[in-house]
Design a protein that fits this description.
Largest sheet: 6 strands, antiparallel
Distance between the termini: 35 Å
Shape: elongated
Radius of gyration: 26 Å
Helix content: 25-40%
Bound molecules: guanosine-5'-diphosphate, manganese (II) ion
Strand content: 15-25%
Oligomer: single chain
Structural class: alpha+beta
Number of helices: 11
Number of strands: 16
Length: about 375
């Protein structure tokens, strides 16, 4: 579970890791409630799970009150890597003296937590040469180690103390909240040596959430996900352009593999579980129809008791209602398949006897679009 920056910063505050003075607004009325409390200049930060907001123009500075509302509206509308915010974090701008990098992550390969520190903060850590990666004992991070990291980053005096304090507290947070990652990039040093977490990226281990009821409020389900879950579907959005619908997680997963092997890229996984009725299939297509990246749909239904004509009816309805326009490649094993073929003969959907044939035709179609 990825926390948004403001949620991560809530945890930071709980652990006494300093952050800039900040507020969260989800709409204009919330914004107006905080407007009078703000000390300008301020920084408005779009709350997205994707990184690189700075470069994408999703972090904007605001020097006077009159700019607040238009800048807020601009950010709420701005899409970054396909994601739009539900909230904006508003922070009093700080005078940055130095930007550092600090993160702790679960290093599965080495079966331990590792810590990365660097004196080059504020940029992608992948592109930084000058960084130290060290393993951290699960029993905790000692004051001596924290101090040696500060020294390594050439910090001294109050800055060194302030920094090593943050290292210790971050390690405590990671251990207690069972985080897979806690990253502060940048961790900034102000001119008086105070260290502040200017950004927060925290990923909590999904398998541990049952032990942390206090973190449940941070679970964000996208609207689409919510709609799918309400209908009893298992739905996962993926990166590609082929949506795969089927009955049974195993069947959908193996279909995903075959599509992949055939050179296609799956864009959605939808297992509608239960019974294939006109209604469930229509609803499944409705969920898929919201994904503009999907260029073709693969339907793989298996089972002797599936009334394929009911599925065909749902497909016809979805086209007739204008809900979907992309072609459907379907393999539907079950009763009434001749009737179904007949029903779909004039539509944008094609039925195949085997899933391999359906996939091969689909991948060829996607290839022809390029
Ligand atoms: P990211 O691009 O999504 O990682 O967003 P960050 O929260 O890391 O912000 C990106 C950059 O914006 C930081 O590295 C800072 O240089 C700058 N920035 C963010 N907040 C402030 C602020 O309060 N004052 C100043 N001067 N710069 C800021
Ligand atoms: Mn950052």
């Amino acid at each position: 579970m990825k926390l948004l920056e403001y949620q991560g910063k809530e945890l930071f505050s709980e652990y006494d890791i300093a952050i800039p003075k900040s507020y969260v607004a989800k709409n204009l009325s919330e914004l107006s409630q905080i407007a009078d409390k703000l000390k300008f200049p301020i920084v408005l930060k779009s709350q997205l799970t994707v990184g690189g907001r700075g470069k994408a123009g999703a972090i904007l500075k605001c020097t006077k009150k009159e700019e607040l509302e238009p800048v807020f509206i601009e950010l709420m509308k701005k899409e970054v890597k396909g994601e739009r915010p539900n909230a904006i974090l508003i922070e009093e701008a700080v005078e940055i003296n130095k930007e550092l990098y600090l993160s702790l992550f679960l290093n599965r390969g080495r079966r331990t937590y590792s810590l990365i520190s660097s004196s080059e903060g504020g940029v992608d850590i992948e592109s930084v040469q000058n960084k130290v990666i060290q393993d951290i004992s699960i029993t905790g991070l000692t004051q001596a180690i924290a101090e040696s990291i500060a020294k390594n980053l050439k910090l001294d005096g109050f800055a060194a103390k302030s920094f090593s304090n943050i290292v210790i507290k971050l390690a405590k947070l990671v251990r207690e909240k069972e985080a897979e990652l806690a990253e502060i990039n940048p961790l900034v040093i102000l001119s008086d040596g105070t260290c502040l977490a200017l950004d927060a990226k925290i990923i909590i281990d999904d398998n541990s959430i049952f032990r942390h009821p206090e973190l449940r409020k941070y679970i964000q389900i996208s609207e689409l996900q919510e709609q799918a879950e309400k209908s009893g579907f298992s739905f996962v959005e993926l990166d590609g352009n082929i949506a795969i619908i089927g009955n049974g997680a195993g069947l959908v997963m193996s279909t995903l593999d075959i599509v992949h092997d055939a050179g296609g890229t799956p864009g959605a996984f939808l297992d509608f579980g239960g019974r294939a009725t006109t209604e469930t299939i229509y609803k499944a297509l409705q969920v898929i129809s919201k994904l503009s990246k999907v260029k073709a749909i693969l339907v793989n239904l298996f089972g002797g008791i599936v009334r394929t004509d009911l599925v065909a009816q749902a497909i016809l309805d979805a086209y007739k209602d204008g809900m979907i326009s992309v072609p459907i490649y379907a393999r539907i094993s079950g009763a009434e398949s001749d009737k179904s073929k007949q029903m779909l003969s004039n539509s944008n959907a094609k039925l195949y006897d085997t899933v391999e044939e359906a996939i091969s035709a689909l991948v060829q179609y996607i290839g022809s679009m390029k």
